[in-house]
Each structure stands twice: as structure tokens, then as C-alpha cells.
Amino acid sequence: MAYDENKYSVQKLPNPLLLHWILNPGLAINEVILGQRIPKVTLIDKTSNAPLVDRNYVPCPSCGAIHHGKLWGKGNAFGHWLGLICPNCEQKIPCLWNVFSLILLAVLSPIWFPLKKIYEQKYIAYELSRFKKAEANMANPINKFTWIKMGASFGLLMLAFFVSAEYFRGGITLDKFIFLAIINTIGGLFFGAFMWFFMGRKKG
User: Fold this and answer.
1) Is the pLDDT of residue 98 over 90?
2) For a pLDDT cut of 70, what percent of the chain falls above it?
3) Residues 39 and 94 sit within 8 Å (Cβ to Cβ)
4) Mean pLDDT value of segment 121-142
């Protein structure tokens, strides 16, 4: 699929950020547990000085439509376990897979594969029903509080994961909980700052 190179730069593998997505074992949690997916191809508007989050577009190779990336952003970033669905032609948009997600999915295939066969069409209908709310959220401005909230949410999710893992490994003590809370709070703040640095700053 050809794109207007005067308007867009094409972000795809081996882009370093995308390589990080497929190789970081921690991001397997985002994919398998939270259902966050990243398209294989993202277009960046080179003609705008807006923050990167407002210059992201996702092309659909099936129908050629180009959708604003914020459709799968705030309020609609998670729950896409079977991939992203094009609201125009209702076909799947190719997404990346984290290496460790694929290993985990291979182990769990006896569980999820039958469920996919049974519920895939209902899943697609559900995905399409989310777009009206996502389009409404696109009008809401993104500010620094958005990135703080994103970092806090990420830190809480990671804390819940590690506390659960410790619990099933033999129990969680108060000292362990405090240690994990501190580490994941710091990690959440770094995540929010990282996302703001790459996505929230204005170009130039």
C-alpha cells in the first residue's frame, strides 16, 4: 500500500520503538492480559507541529482507509485481544506481536483457541460498537494530567500483577508489598514521563 510521502512518514519494523514492543517481556502483559495492540504500520503526519499523539494515523490495508490513531487511544486502548478492527470495512488491521506473548499464547492455546472460534464474530461486533465512544473521546484535549493518570494506571496494574505472583508463590508480606509499591510507583511515573516525552510534546 502506497502512502503520500510528502505528508506522512511510515513507522514500521525495524523502528527501535517497535522493536522494543516486540522484545520487552513486560509488554506481553499489555498484549495478553490487557489487550493492548500496536499496528504493524503507523503513519506520522510530517506537515503538523502538533504532539506526536495527534499526528498518528493507522492505515487499513484492506480498504485503504486512514484512521486517526486516537481511535485506539484514550478510553479505547485496551481490550483488543483479537486485534484492531477497521471501522470502515470491518476487517482486521495487522498488528505486532510481542515474542513472549506468542510463547504464552502457544502454551495457553487449548484455552483461548476454542473461545476464539466461538466468540470471534461477537468480538468484532463489540469492537465496532466502541468506536462512537472513541470518536467522542477524540475531542477531549490531552494534557499533562493525562500522562500522569496513564503512568499511575500502569503502575497500579503492574503492582497488582507482581503482588498476585508473590501471593501464589508462597504469600505476600507487608515488607514485600511496600517494596513492590515503591518500585511500581517509580516505574509508573517513568512510564508516564516516557509516554509524554515521545507522544505528548509538540514537534520542534
Assistant:
1) yes
2) 86
3) yes
4) 79
Strands 56-59 and 84-85, bridge-based pairing? unpaired
The count of structural domains within the chain is 2
Per-residue pLDDT at 150 exceeds 80: no
Q: What is the DSSP letter of 26?
A: T
Query: Judging by DSSP bridges, how do beta strands 42-45 and 66-68 pair with one another?
Result: unpaired
Which residues span the domain enclosing 17? 1-141
Domain co-membership, 7 together with 86: yes
Q: How many CA atoms lie within 13 A of 58 on its CB side?
A: 22
DSSP states along 79-101: --TT-EE-TTT-PEEPB---HHH
Instruction: Please give the Cα distance from 131 to 120 (Å, whole number).
Output: 18
Q: How many Å separate Cα 95 from the centre of its chain?
A: 10
How do residues 100-131 score in pLDDT, each as one tens digit?
A: 999 999 998 998 889 888 888 898 898 988 88
**14 cis-preceded (ω within 30 degrees of 0):** yes
Q: Rounded to the nearest 5°, which phi and psi values hold at 96?
A: -75, 160
Question: Domain check: are 82 and 177 in the same one?
Answer: no
β-bridge mates for residue 56, sequence order: 44
For 150, half-sphere exposure in the C-beta direction (CA atoms, 13 angstrom radius) is 21
